[in-house]
Amino acid sequence: MTGIQTLHSHTTASDGQMTHLEVLDCAKEFGVSAVTFTDHDMLPSPETIQILRSYTGEVKWISGIEISSGLPKELGGGAYPGLHITGLFVDPTNAKLLNHCRLAKEARLKRMQKIFSNLQGLGFKITEEDCIAAS
Fold first, then answer.
1. 41 φ/ψ sector (left φ>0, alpha ψ -120 to 50, else beta)
2. The pTM is what?
3. Packed helices 46-54 and 20-29: angle between N→C axes, nearest 10 degrees
4. What distance in Å separates the CA atoms of residue 48 and residue 13, rounded to the nearest whole number?
5. Is the dihedral angle over the CA atoms 84, 90, 93, 97 positive or is it negative?
6. Are 34 and 5 in contact, with CB atoms under 8 Å apart?
7. How confident is the model at residue 62 (pLDDT cuts 50, 70, 90)?
8. pLDDT in tens, 76-133
9. What is the mean pLDDT of the chain?
10. Residue 96 and residue 124: Cα distance in Å, rounded?
11. Is the pLDDT assigned to residue 73 strictly greater than 80?
12. Alpha helices in 9-127 (DSSP H)
């Protein structure tokens, strides 16, 4: 393996296209020696951590997070709600981080509901379930 590392990757836990193990397999295929999982406002679940701890492949993994620094403007956020902070070597059982993740998920759902309501107001035939399925 080479010394190539990626310190910012997303999985299907947020907006990525691959599971944690698929990311590790892809990393190995392309000669990446270490991967940090930094999903949006999402820590690996206890089940995922157990799966990762049992992983015996060559690629090293690091638990991380990409934290949204504020609410979207539509929900009362400030001028820079899109600013993200990346944390590396985070504790996936940290109560404060888990609470932040819960609040961020709730804010995203409220924002999605507002968007879908606005689309319905414009005459689009769309349901909340359509939005969740598409996301």
1. left
2. 0.77
3. 30
4. 10
5. negative
6. yes
7. very high
8. 666 555 678 899 999 999 999 999 889 888 888 888 888 888 888 999 888 778 777 7
9. 86
10. 39
11. no
12. 20-29, 46-54, 95-121
